[in-house]
Structures are given as C-alpha cells and as structure tokens.
Design brief:
The protein has helices spanning 57-64, 114-117, 158-178, 195-204, 216-224, 238-244, 258-266, 289-294, 307-318, 334-342, and strands spanning 19-23, 32-36, 45-55, 81-88, 100-103, 106-108, 128-129, 141-145, 150-151, 185-189, 208-213, 229-232, 248-253, 268-276, 298-301, 326-330, 349-353. The chain is built from ten helices and 17 strands. The chain is globular and about 60 Å long. The strands form four sheets. Strands 3, 4, 5, 8, 9, 16 and 17 form a seven-stranded mixed β-sheet that branches. The chain is α/β, with parallel strands linked by helices and 354 residues long. The structure holds zinc ion (2 copies). One zinc ion binds at residues 109-110, 113, 115-116, 124, 126. One zinc ion (ZN) is lined by residues 56, 58, 79, 105, 166.
C-alpha cells in the first residue's frame, strides 16, 4: 500500500506546488482539510485537476477503517473523481492533456494475469484502489494511472460523471452479473446512490423493477426512475410482498444491512439469483442451505466494474438514457456530508466540488 500525503515544505517537481485535499489521519477522527504536496509522477501516471468527486459509502468505511482489509492513514479517500488531465509522466500516450477522465476504484491492475486478460481486471490480485490503497479524488488534484482512467465523453456533465464512476458502473455490472433479461422481475434493495441507478440499468436491460427501501421519499424517487412496484420494508415484509408478485428472478442487495440481504434472498423465486453488492460493516448473513439447493438459487458477489463497463455507462448517459440524482457540496462539508449519508438524509449522491 502506498499512501503519500507529504508535508508542504518541500519543493515539488510538479507544476502544482500544493493543493487542498481531505485527509484521513485517524479512523476515529473527522477528515482534515489540508494543504498537501503532489507526489512526483511515477511511470504511467498522470495528474488530474479534479472538477467533481462523489461520496460513496465505501469512502465512509475507508475513513472509519470498518472493513477487514484497512487502508493505512494518512490517505485521501475518493474513487469517483472526475477532472481534466494537466500533467503526464514521460511516455504516457493513452490520454492527452486536457482530456476529461474519471478515476474509478480500480486505480491500477497488472494487465497480464489471468483475470486481467479475461475481462476480469476487477479481480486482479495486484490491483490498487483509488482512495483506499492509493490516494483518491477528494482534493483539488489527484494522481492516477493513465491506463486505468476512463475518458468522459463530451456532453456528459462532470457532476453526473462522478457518481457514474462508482455507483453507476457498480450497479451496471451487478445487473450484467444478475443476467437480467426482458420481463424478469428485479428486486432492488436500497434506493440510494447505487439503487437509483440500479433501477435504471435493470429497466434498460428489460427488467420490471420492484424497489425496496425504508423511506417513502426514496421509494417515490424509485417510482419516478422506472420502478414498477415499491415496498417500504419498515411497514411490510419485503420478501412476502415480492413473493406475492411471483418472486424476483434477480435481487440486487445494495443496502448496508445484513438483514436486507436476507430479505433479498427471501424475495427470490425458484432459480433466482441474489447479487451481493453492498459491503456492510457487519460482515455476516445467514442463508439456508436446504432452500438454496432445492430452489436452485444462485448467490454471487459483484465488485465494481471494468473500464469497458464504465465506458458503456458513460455511453448510456451521453445518450440520455440515465438520470443521476445528486447534490453538489463543497469539499469543506465532507464531515457533515458523511454524517448525512450515515443518517440516510441524502436523496442519492453527494458530489463535492473541490
Ligand atoms: Zn464506491
Ligand atoms: Zn492482473
């Protein structure tokens, strides 16, 4: 893990001398807005002037050190950074100065292992992750590997591109992994930053969507974005309600609660597929073996998406097929924004302007 947040008193080789960024110094403390020094570019890297950077639940887990594999402070979170390229390491020709690019979770992969060459670069054991094992996009500038940034097409607003860079590609891939086909009933558990996009991708794939959440406002949004049915899990058992609709062909678990995963499982019809996407701090669910075998249930995990998936996500958005629900805030508001996301006070996604 290389996390370099260097002090500001050294001369920099970069055109940028220092820049503001949100830094995690301690898992139990709020993030600090600091002046940091840009690292010298390593071979294959580029520098980006960040225009927009979305706040994903993963950033919050990173900042709190919630998961079994922890980042090492100090580090800068953010894996939905979007901006324009200002500097290239010698020999980088994949992108040009001035290109607008997205810097996703998959910040680097080896490019040659079995996973990388078979279209599963997201499973590469050598991968580095933006905002986790390498510094991310919560700053005025960010450093990334040229081969793993994805160009943002003209006509896509960077403020929209940011949430698409994780929430978009992750749910787009989850629908691919689910194998949704026309007329399938797709249950989307959790209508937040990810869920509001999952509903749209499942609909684009031809699915009929039932959205599940605890908050009526979010269910109203789900309906506006294409969900045919909605279930408020605080008032009725979603598994029972969805079984009344015939059971879900696929259920996509996006809520950070093991209970929601179990309800998603219970909503499936025979032969159905449950896709694990959200990563709750509480890491365990209980699923029955007997019913899984007899009902021929598939349980599958889906982690973000590849560069190809993200290109497709941008293509759909440029074509006007998706809407991104987001709220723009200043990076200075990062700690209150984290509190708002944790309390469920945010409609979908917060996007910071550095
Ligand atoms: Zn994310
Ligand atoms: Zn690899």
């Amino acid at each position: 893990m290389s996390t370099t947040v260097t002090p500001t008193d050294k001369a920099s080789k970069s055109a940028v001398s220092t820049y503001r960024a949100a830094v995690v110094r301690d898992f139990n403390a709020p993030l600090a807005i600091e002046q940091v020094q840009p690292p010298a570019l390593e071979p294959g890297q580029l520098r980006v002037k960040v225009e927009a950077s979305g706040l994903c639940h993963t950033d919050i887990h990173a900042a709190h050190g919630d998961w079994p594999v922890k980042p090492s402070p100090p580090f800068i979170p953010g894996h939905e950074g979007v901006g324009t390229v200002t500097e290239l390491a010698p020999g980088v020709s994949d992108v040009a100065i001035g290109d607008r690019v997205a810097m996703p979770w998959l910040g680097y992969a080896c490019g040659t292992c079995d996973y990388c060459v078979s279209g599963w670069e997201t499973l590469c054991l050598q991968q580095k992750n933006m905002g986790y094992s390498i510094n991310g996009g919560f700053g005025e500038y960010a450093t990334a590997y040229a081969r793993y940034v994805v160009k943002v097409p003209s006509g896509v607003d960077p403020i929209d591109a940011a949430p698409l860079t994780c929430a978009g590609v992750t749910t787009y891939k989850a629908v691919k992994v689910a194998g949704t086909r026309s007329s399938d009933l797709v249950a989307v558990f959790g209508v937040g930053g990810l869920g509001h996009l999952a509903i749209q991708y499942a609909t684009i794939a031809g699915g009929r969507v039932v959205a599940v959440d605890l908050i009526d406002e979010k269910l109203k949004l789900a309906h506006e974005l294409g969900a045919e049915f909605t279930v408020n899990a605080s008032r009725e058992d979603p598994a029972e309600a969805i079984q009344k609709l015939g059971g879900a062909d696929q259920a996509i678990a996006l809520a950070v609660s093991p209970r929601a995963f179990e309800q998603a499982y219970g909503s499936l019809r025979r032969g159905g597929t449950l896709v694990f996407v959200a990563l709750p701090a509480d890491n365990n669910v209980t699923l029955p073996i007997f019913e899984t075998v007899l009902n021929g249930i598939t349980v599958v995990g889906s982690i973000v998406g590849t560069r190809t998936d993200l290109r497709e996500v941008f293509e759909l958005h440029a074509a006007g097929k998706t809407s991104v629900i987001r709220e723009v805030r200043s990076l200075d508001q990062i700690n209150e924004s984290i509190a708002d996301v944790e309390a469920g006070r945010v409609a979908a996604r917060i996007v910071f302007r550095p």
